[in-house]
Design brief:
Elements: H1 5-19, E1 21-23, H2 24-31, H3 35-47, E2 52-54, E3 57-59, H4 64-74, H5 77-88, E4 96-99, H6 103-106, E5 119-122, H7 125-131, E6 138-141, E7 145-147, E8 152-154, H8 156-163, E9 168-172, E10 176-178, E11 182-185, H9 188-200, E12 201-207, E13 219-222, E14 229-231, H10 238-247, E15 250-254, E16 264-267
Parallel strand pairs: 4-5, 4-9, 5-6, 9-12, 12-14, 14-15
Antiparallel strand pairs: 1-3, 2-3, 7-8, 10-11, 11-13, 15-16
Helix pairs in contact: 1-3, 1-4, 2-3, 8-9
């Protein structure tokens, strides 16, 4: 079985970020796929503005930091939009919510437009690209050290600011979720900040597509016991249903693939 397109795309972008250039012949041999396949991958990534095709290969069209943000935004976009709509149903008029600086939380924002008198807390300029349009809501931006590759703010100033807040619903994506390992992340700075956020939250909602399940990342953020909801784009496994029932976590996911955006199950 060949390497999935999504995995190939990720490796292409990683190679470009490292060397600035990629050659079709060399990369097709490295991945064990045809040159036609790699050229097709390059065309797809070029259409998304992530690279520029050249004779025999491709180069970056923008700095690495911008490529990183764009790639996370386009990856599994349809699934994230389904999750965004389902997760938004947990937000009621007058709520205080924290949205993590991630592309899944980014897809929650359009569905908050019709809510009234929300207070939305973020540490992300990426999320502010959409939030600035929601003028009926109060937006709190957590300041700190800016990281261009993630378009977020972290560090001591951000940690001090979030420690002064509380009583909010926290929507977190993390990198992975597993029954035994909990939710986890690969970036130690992001993980440290996420731990503080969850400690201050009154309710914690994990939002993540099916690729994030059962593949723990390096740093643990929290056990799943600390979660109130898990929102995803497909039917969780029987093991997850059992764990959710045991730990009183509500699972929210589409009822079926035909009408994924309008129906969901709420299972405990």
């Amino acid at each position: 079985m060949g390497i999935a397109a999504e995995v190939r795309h990720k490796r292409i972008l990683e190679q470009l970020s490292s060397t600035g250039r990629i050659y079709v012949k060399n990369f097709s041999e490295a991945l064990g796929v045809t040159e036609v396949t790699i050229r097709r991958d390059l065309s797809t990534l070029q259409s998304e503005g992530l690279l520029k095709k050249t004779y025999g290969g491709a180069v970056l069209t923008a700095p690495e930091v911008i490529t990183s943000v764009r790639y996370r935004q386009t990856r599994k976009l349809r699934a994230k939009r389904v999750i965004g709509k389902l997760a938004s149903a947990l937000v009621k008029d007058g709520d205080i919510v924290y949205l993590e600086a991630g592309s899944t939380c980014y897809e929650i924002i359009p569905f908050l437009a019709e809510r009234k008198e929300l207070t939305i807390i973020v540490n992300s300029l990426y999320l502010m690209k959409r939030l600035h349009e929601l003028t009926r809501h109060k937006i709190i931006i957590i300041g700190g050290q800016y990281r261009p590759d993630r378009m977020d703010m972290v560090g001591p100033a951000a940690e001090m600011a979030i420690s002064q807040l509380g009583g909010f619903k926290a929507f977190t994506g993390a990198d992975d979720i597993a029954i035994d390992a909990g939710i986890s992340g690969a970036d130690v700075v992001t993980v440290g900040f996420a731990k503080l956020v969850l400690k201050r939250a009154s309710e914690v909602i994990f939002v993540g597509d099916d690729s994030k399940f059962d593949n723990p990342a390096l740093y643990r953020i929290a056990d799943i016991d600390e979660l109130d909801y898990i929102v995803t784009n497909s039917h969780p496994s029987r093991a997850w249903h059992h764990a959710a029932k045991e730990k009183n976590i509500k699972l929210i996911y589409p009822r079926n693939k035909t009408h994924p955006s309008g129906e969901f199950r709420n299972s405990t």
